[in-house]
Amino acid sequence: MAITTVGDIITSALSKVLVNNAQDTLSAADTQLAFDALGVLIDALGIERLACYALTTTAHPLTGGTGSYTIGTGGAFNVDRPARIENAFVRLASGSNNVDFPVEIIPQSQWDTIPVKDIAGIPRKLFYDTQYPLGTIWLYPEPLSTDYTLYLNSYLPIATYTSTADAIDLPPGYKRMLIHNLAVEIAPDFGVNPDPMVIKIANESKRLIKRINTPDPVMTVDPAIATKRGTWNIVTGGY
Q1: Backbone φ/ψ region at 101: left (φ over 0), alpha (ψ -120 to 50), beta
Q2: Three-state SS at 40
Q3: Short-list 161, 170, 185, 175, CA closest to 206
Q4: At what angle do helices 6-16 and 28-45 cross, to 10 degrees?
Q5: pLDDT for position 46
Q6: CB 5 within 8 Å of CB 167
Q7: Burial (CB count <10 Å: 0-12, 13-18, 19+), residue 210
């Protein structure tokens, strides 16, 4: 059958654990159990960095002299709380021009080494305190004025579904991964062991998705060992 809705994912997953072979329609209780399990599965995939297929960029106006902002539903930055911020930059609106400044994401161990944090300037460092339900973003230096906007790049969760009738609109490979991983997830609820082939496909399908979502590596050189003499010229054999 064509897999086009959440209900189709559930029906197919339940068929893998032999729940609906002997009946024409699934019971409401079985459907609800599988729907709840799918939500838990998707929630867990949301913290698997390579299971998320795209970055989302959100823009947040800054307040002059304010260096910390809560983030999450109902926070100062009223968006879904990101599990992790991948990268960020600050945009300065200057007349008709915009100037972007990269912001370094640092851990708390580095944040704690900054002796004076309430200095005004162009924010160049960001520490994300991943509290729940609201995280807190700390910036250093604090923004000079309201002319600055912080842009955050974080990975999108797979999806949020509220009904079995919701349409499934995901990149290639995700339907197969959800069906087989959901089958493995719900099998114990029905007192059965998932078929080894179902387990194999569940693992394989997730592995393929993570492979395609792996970023291309970018080579960097520690500044402490990098040459200061310029760029090597392959034609002349010198700097």
Answers
A1: beta
A2: helix
A3: 175
A4: 100
A5: 86
A6: yes
A7: middle
Determine the Cα–Cα distance for residues 165 and 152; give it in Å rounded to an integer: 32
Which of the four pLDDT bands, split at 50, 70 and 90, describes residue 22? very low
H or E segment to which residue 33 belongs: helix 28-45
- The whole model's pTM is what? 0.74
CA gap 106, 88 in Å, rounded: 11
Contacts of 164 (CB under 8 A, 6+ apart): 5, 6, 7, 10, 31, 35
Burial of 105 (0-12, 13-18, 19+ CB in 10 A): middle
Taking the CA atoms of residue 134, residue 139, residue 145 and residue 149 in that order, the dihedral angle to the nearest 10 degrees is -70
Give 56-103 pLDDT, tens digit per residue. 999 999 999 999 999 999 999 999 899 899 999 999 987 778 999 999
In the chain, pLDDT over 70 holds for what percent of residues?
86
Q: What angle do CA 157, 162, 166 make, to 5 degrees?
A: 90
Is the preceding peptide bond at 141 cis, omega within 30 degrees of 0? yes
Q: What's the distance, Cα to Cα, between the start and end of the chain in Å? A: 64
Residue 100's Cβ-side half-sphere holds a number of Cα atoms within 13 Å equal to 8
| Encoded amino acid at 177, one letter | M
